[in-house]
Structure formats: C-alpha cells, structure tokens
C-alpha cells in the first residue's frame, strides 16, 4: 500500500502575519486615497488668485491691473483732475507742441476765481511721462523741483511778467497741472486746494 501524501496545516502564527500584512496594506491604501481626496477639496475650495486680482480701471472696465491703461482723451484728463470743466466758458483748449513720438498733447486753460482774485490753471495730458517732465523742466528753466507724493513740483522763485508760476507733474504718469497767479501766496494756495488723483488712483479706481 502506497503512502498517502498530506499537506501540512498552516500554523496560527503564520496566519496572523498574513492577516496583519493585509490590514496594513488596506490601511495604507485608504490613507493614500484620503490624502488625494483631501488635497482635491483643498484646491477646489481655494479662491482663484486671478479672480482676486481683478480691479476696476479708471474707465470702468474690469480685469487684471496690468490691463488698465493710462487715462486718455478729455474723459481721462477729467478723471485725473476732477475739477476740470472743459465745456465751461472759463476754459479753452490749447494747442500744444507734439511729444517725442510726434503725438499731440491735450491741454485746457481755465480761469478760476480764488480768494477774491483769479488764477489760471492749465491741465495737460502729454504723450508720455518723459514728455511731461521735460516740458515742466524746460518751462521753469531746469530749476530743481520739489518731490512730493509721486510728483515733482516746480515753483518759480520770482515772477515772470508780473505773474507767479508753478507746475506739478506726475513722475510715472503723463499728466501735469500749471498754475499762474498774481502773487506767490495765491499761486501756492491754488495748488493746495486743487483736487487731483493720487498716483495709485490714476489707472485704477480707488477702493479696488
């Protein structure tokens, strides 16, 4: 009679090892899935940075700040200098020399009552900031300007033909305003009371 072959039974210790390994594999897989899902939820709930960066430009258009242009035309000049009333009988358009790139400047001269007297204010939009600064420096004979809140201010130290002049020009934007008055005190008062946009509000509306 031949010998019957038998298969040895697995020991309890070996069975426990197999079960422990299976449990660990399942747990590791579950943790990996949870991590992936959690990361997905985190990114899904995170605000869109591009959407957050949108602003309202000076002309009412919305988009990234980099898309906001320098104000242009009469509307742009009035945005920078809100007190300008180009259609008023006290204001008249001026013909200005062309800029370095042969583009025309836009300017209005307005006679404004102030402190029982009258001052003349000239609002100008140049083709470029460099053109604006060059014109201001030339008008005031290259005298050193004061720097104040993103602007350069040129104040003549003596009157010219009985009138006192100053010019305030933006450093990084193509706009300037000039004041002409009968006295230095009145000239300075006109500039102090003039309503203008801060450099940060030229291309982007405030509060955006």
Structural class: alpha+beta
Please state the CA-atom Rg, rounded to the nearest Å.
36 Å
Major β-sheet strand ordering? 3-4-5-9-8-7-6
Spatial separation of the terminal alpha carbons: 99 Å
Helix tally? 5
Residues in β-strands, percent: 15-25%
Portion of residues within helices: 25-40%
Taken in chain order, the helices and strands follow as HHEEHEEEHEEEEH
Low-confidence stretches: 1-8, 22-27, 41-47
Query: What do the pLDDT scores average to?
Result: 83
Count the strands?
A: 9
Shape: globular
- Note the main sheet: 7 strands, antiparallel
Keywords:
two-stranded antiparallel ribbon, globular, disordered N terminus, 208 residues, seven-stranded antiparallel sheet, alpha+beta
Can you characterise this structure?
A hairpin with a 2-residue loop joins strand 4 and strand 5. The strands form 2 sheets. Strands 3-4-5-9-8-7-6 form a 7-stranded antiparallel β-sheet, sandwiched between helices. It has a two-stranded antiparallel ribbon with strand order 1-2. The protein has 5 helices and 9 strands. The longest helix has 34 residues, at 12-45. The chain is globular. It has 208 residues and is α+β, with helices and mostly antiparallel strands.
């Amino acid at each position: 009679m031949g010998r019957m072959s038998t298969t040895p039974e697995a020991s309890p210790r070996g069975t426990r090892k197999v079960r422990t390994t299976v449990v660990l594999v399942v747990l590791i897989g579950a943790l990996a899935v949870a991590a992936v899902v959690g990361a997905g939820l985190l990114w899904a709930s995170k605000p869109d940075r591009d959407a957050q960066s949108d602003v309202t430009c000076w002309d009412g258009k919305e988009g990234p700040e980099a898309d906001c242009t320098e104000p242009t035309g009469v509307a742009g000049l009035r945005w920078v200098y809100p007190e300008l009333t180009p259609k008023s009988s006290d204001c008249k358009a001026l013909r200005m020399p062309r800029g370095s790139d042969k583009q025309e400047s836009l300017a209005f001269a307005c006679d404004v009552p102030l402190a029982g007297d009258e001052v003349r204010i000239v609002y100008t939009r140049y083709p470029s900031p460099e053109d604006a600064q060059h014109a201001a420096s030339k008008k005031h004979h290259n005298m050193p300007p004061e720097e104040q809140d993103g602007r350069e201010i040129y104040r003549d130290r003596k009157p010219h033909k009985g009138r006192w002049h100053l010019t305030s020009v933006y450093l990084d934007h193509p706009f300037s305003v000039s004041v002409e008055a009968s006295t230095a005190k009145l000239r300075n008062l006109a500039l102090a009371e003039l309503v203008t946009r801060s450099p940060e509000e030229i291309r982007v509306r405030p509060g955006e």
